[in-house]
Design goal:
The chain has 96 residues and is an alpha+beta fold. The chain is built from two helices and four strands, in the order E-E-E-E-H-H. Strand 2 and strand 3 form a beta hairpin.
Length: 96
């Protein structure tokens, strides 16, 4: 993967407000940040769970389908998820 990849997406909170998430690749590993409704700055997530990596994979998969990121990004994240013991959904399995 190239260095300094930033991918952002949002989710809805229980009260209907948007919560923004950011995955940042710094040429070695992924770092995650969150911007909560009403907050003024991004907060780093110290220990991201498998759910965040799966959400990031979904974002990267959709970008790959639109030819905005190469497939090696998906493969790298799949390898990381496999090391974490997570199951990748069948619809998103590697093409190789």
């Amino acid at each position: 993967m190239t260095k300094n990849q930033i991918h952002e997406w949002h989710e809805r909170t229980d009260d209907g407000k948007r919560r923004y998430l950011r995955g940042y690749w710094n040429s070695r590993d992924w770092a995650f940040s969150v911007l909560e409704p009403g907050a003024e700055d991004w907060f780093r997530i110290a220990e991201p769970g498998v759910e965040l990596y799966l959400a990031l994979r979904d974002v990267l998969w959709r970008k790959y389908q639109r030819r905005r990121v190469p497939f090696k990004f998906i493969e790298g994240l799949d390898a990381l998820l496999a090391k974490m013991g997570a199951d990748v959904p069948k619809a998103y399995e590697s093409e190789s």
